[in-house]
Amino acid sequence: PDAALAARLNLIAGARYSIDVQTYLWSFDDVGNLMLDALLRAAQRGVTVRILADQLFSFSNVGTLAALARSSPHLHIRLYNPTFDEAHTQPLQWAAGIVCCYFRFNQRMHDKLLLVDGRVGIVGGRNYENRYFGWDPSLDYLDRDVLLAGPVARIMRRSFDVFWHNPRALP
């Protein structure tokens, strides 16, 4: 698990032009914060960073999310399918979303992708939270990733762009 996180951080540190990150879940814990810090540093050195996370279980602190969005003109964050078009879903809203709009509410984005400079990327099942990288001692969780480079990177970029430009992906 540490190698999986190190690979991501090293790719981000070496980025020169662009970074695309897509995930279902992003927490403000150690792993989530390490990733955000690395991405913010990349944006501050002029790398275009696009983060796309499913809204339901990501970035629960709306104030921090807003501060991140304003931190660099090179950092762009979108939330996929926010319930009632809000960045954070309160428990009552969550229940109302299921009752009134189940089909729309259940349209979640589970894709996980990191693509650097449109040339090299990682896909797999890890979200950005401690438990997915072995940093939560209460969980015995193991996942796999694949490091990819070459022509498949164009396919990864197209896949990311489909979600990024989807009407359900809101800034």
From TrEMBL:
SUPFAM superfamilies: Phospholipase D/nuclease. Pfam families: PLDc_2 (PF13091). CDD domains: PLDc_ymdC_like_1. GO terms for molecular function: phosphatidyltransferase activity. GO terms for biological process: cardiolipin biosynthetic process. PROSITE patterns: PLD (PS50035). Residues 105-132 form the PLD phosphodiesterase domain. PANTHER family: CARDIOLIPIN SYNTHASE, CARDIOLIPIN SYNTHASE C. This is Phospholipase D/Transphosphatidylase. It comes from mine drainage metagenome.
